[in-house]
From TrEMBL:
Protein name: Cytochrome P450
GO CC entries: membrane
Organism phylogeny: Eukaryota, Viridiplantae, Streptophyta, Embryophyta, Marchantiophyta
Binding site for heme: C488
Cofactor list: heme
Highest taxon of the lineage: Eukaryota
Database matches in PROSITE patterns: CYTOCHROME_P450
Amino acid sequence: MLSFKNSQLSTRTWVTLTFVVLFAIVLHRLFRFVRTYMWNPLRYRRAMQAQGVSGPTPFLMTGNLPEVQALKAESWKRPMNDISHDYVDRLFPHYRLWTERYGPRFLFWSGSQPIILETDPDLIKEVFSSDHKGPYAKYGPQTVLSKRVTGDALFALNGTKWLHRRRAVRPAFRGQLLEGLVEPVMTSTKEVLVSKWEKRLSESGGRECYIEDIVPHLAALTGDVIARALFRSSYEESNHAFEQHKELIRLEFQKQPLPCSWTPRSLIGYAKVAYQRFRRRRELHQSVLATVRGMVEKAMAQESKQKAHAHKDFLSLLLAANNDPETVAEGFQMSTKDLIQEARSFYTAGYQAPATALNWIFMLLAQHPTWQDRIYEELKEVAGDEGMLTMQVLNSLNNLSMVIYESLRLYTPAPEAHRTAVRDVQLGNLRILKGTSVSVCIPKLHRLPEFWGEDANEFNPERFRGGLSSARKHAVAYMPFSFGPRYCVAKTFALLEIRCIVAMIIQQFRFQLSPQYVHAPVIIGVGIQPKHGLPIVISRREGRPTMSENVQ
Ligand code: HEM
């Protein structure tokens, strides 16, 4: 009797408790919603307005994203009239509009994220100089995506964790150590691109051959390069994992469109697709993880047995750096899990940006064939008729470097960079509240007339004749690889890879833009891409043996 009474009492208590918990959850969600989407925008906007900075009114939840998307869609609809590199207003129509309305510095919202566009080079330098203890850190959609795909890798870390990882990874990218990576880059270029173009030329029977779009060719090439350079010893397996990794990134990037109506049928269809996507993502994630884990463990076993294997791919460079007595003594050594995350992160970082850079280098060289000839002559002079490419040869090709620097200035692969204030901070005359991102439009910096002259929108590699440091009139006037402690850790490798690929192609071919080329730069993902592809016409260089003849 007593126990029945007790259990009745406890059932009632249970029900009450459940209601209290549910109510607390709902209240908490409601509170967060009001704070994130209503209170914060009000507070941040008031704080900025009090300091003379205004901006467009954000919508609830989406901020200014719908306006940005509409402006971009309108601006990117049509191609440019001619092949002009003056595309900043086209690519960032919202910046132009808001600059006209609110001045050079304004506050806008990406969803619930407040962003200040900063254009003053001195202040940009200050923000990007922030180190792991500084007032700015790296948060944003790219870091979120990177964390989702690869976990805690260098690209997405902050604070002391980032510092330790950067110290552990950096030695793998030091100059001379990269010598061994020229060979995998050459092998990929020969197999994935040169031999295919040679075949197309012979099949076309003529001196010239039309290639409808080189963008996928270059993406396949840089993908092959990173898979080969990262895991040379298990390239075949790694190549498969790499394809899966690319699919995973595509799935993470492409948001599932919302249901077209709110009918039960459409909602069930939506839920079905969402579940299938979730399952596929999980499948891919597990498969890539298993392959990369296998390769890392195999490389670790080889590394301890046979030192001769070292320095032939990134993984062995990473392992060597990781076992370096200094790294061990300072406590920066990475665990196997860290190594796996870094390897996966290099997959992502290592193929997109070089492919984007190469697209525009080839577009500009095709538009300016005299620069192809200058590079070719210089190559003959430095490398002789045999044309053997080594790291020393590649680094001494001044005309090639000038063209690459100028292309990266005009078409920087990652055009926007952000840092987020981790505490309230003074930036110039502005008090920035914790959580605000400071955004930089790099193509704008790369065209400032005070640093680049009145011809800033022209392709003129001559401006780099005296080297990069003398051309750059301000620390942040040129930042394709970013600036400050978080600049691209793989910059030396990326430049080596690009030099090698361009040199090998110029050794074999001449190329020009096809009349079908339509100039319409747009942003896809995070990089600037030619919207209608890049069709070119190639011809063989007079008197050059084909690569296959060369090998025999
Ligand atoms: C032309 C080629 C490349 C360009 C233009 C480029 C550009 C950049 C930029 C702008 C950043 C800094 C982003 C920021 O400040 O928020 C960055 C960071 C990074 N890049 Fe690259 N990158 C290139 C190639 C590569 C390659 C080939 C790899 C790997 C093999 C790589 C690995 C990384 C990593 C790991 C970071 C994060 C560094 C850190 O946060 O400490 N990048 N890159």
